Amino acid sequence: MLQGRAALLVFTLLASLIIPTSIVSAQQSAPASSPPPAEDAAKAEALRKAAQNPVASLISVPLQDNINPGFEPGYRTQNVLNIQPVIPVKLNEDWNVIIRWITPIIYQPITPTPGAPELGASGLGDMQPTFLFSPRKPHKITWGAGPILQLPTATSDYLGQGKLGIGPNVVVLAMPRKFVMGVLINNIWSVAGSGSRTDVNQMLLQYFVNYNMKKGWYLTTQPIITANWNSTAASGSVWTVPFGGGVGRIMKLGMQPVNISVQAYGNAVHIPQASPWGVRASFALLFPKAPR
């Protein structure tokens, strides 16, 4: 069921990327009384860069679906839908805090015992709220730093780690000309939770490079590199290192600004339980209002 929904989401995102292009072309062919004002183009460019900036003063509601085939036996598919609203809050004239609350909804294939039917678990995973404190005044280098939490909210032992965790979270980026590029890194350690579950000590590093083109289109690479420090290097199960990228577009559906992208990644290195490759499709509602 979840795999079918994932395929439908990817198809819908691709259609959303392609169909508005033909609509825009048709609109452009119609006679116009005057060209769009320069300030409209500047606003569109500012929105595009804000949508690609993790610490921008932009409210957004991204839905990110991660489709990860290749789980054995049977070459089955894991699906992780991340609902991750982003809300900037003005602390004072100098500082914002950017709140992102990641809620994963997961379908996880389970390795059956010999002779048993193939199994899978689905439900809520461990939520991860993050808080990034960032300067309000623009600089050539933009940054944010703050805590990330991991809450043991999973509805099944197969979908979460059963531990309360906390750690530092940092993002640094720059926006030279047509690029938005930077890196986000965090590390979570468990501080409480079930004594029967393995302690958590894991790192996530995501570098991102967006190249912005005409009519809201952009090329992107945003691989998520992870390291489970509690695994042993001898088993080759510490790192997951993907490579790849995709295409996206920031546009309007009616009056609503949205950010849509589709990306594909192959894992050069991955832990034994991970998929060798995956597809990431995202759809984000954008609300370009200044934080209160």
Notes on the protein architecture:
By secondary structure, the chain is mostly beta strands. It has one domain (2-287): Porin (Beta Barrel). Helix content is 14%, strand content 53%. The chain is built from two helices and 15 strands. The protein has helices at 2-29, 38-51, and strands spanning 59-71, 76-83, 86-90, 95-110, 119-124, 128-135, 141-150, 163-174, 179-193, 201-212, 217-221, 224-228, 239-253, 256-269, 277-287. A hairpin with a 2-residue loop joins strand 13 (239-253) and strand 14. The two termini are 41 Å apart.
CATH superfamily: monomeric porin ompg
The termini sit apart by 41 Å
Q: Number of helical segments?
A: 2
Structural category is mainly beta
Largest sheet: 15 strands, antiparallel
Known CATH architecture:
Beta Barrel
| SSE pattern | HHEEEEEEEEEEEEEEE
CATH topology: Porin
Rounded radius of gyration (Å):
20 Å
The oligomeric state is single chain
Would you count the extended β strands for me?
A: 15
Tell me the overall shape: globular
Q: Flag low-confidence runs.
A: 18-35
* Helix percentage range: 10-25%
Number of domains: 1
The amount of beta strand, in percent, is: over 45%
Mean pLDDT: 85
Give the C-level CATH assignment.
Mainly Beta
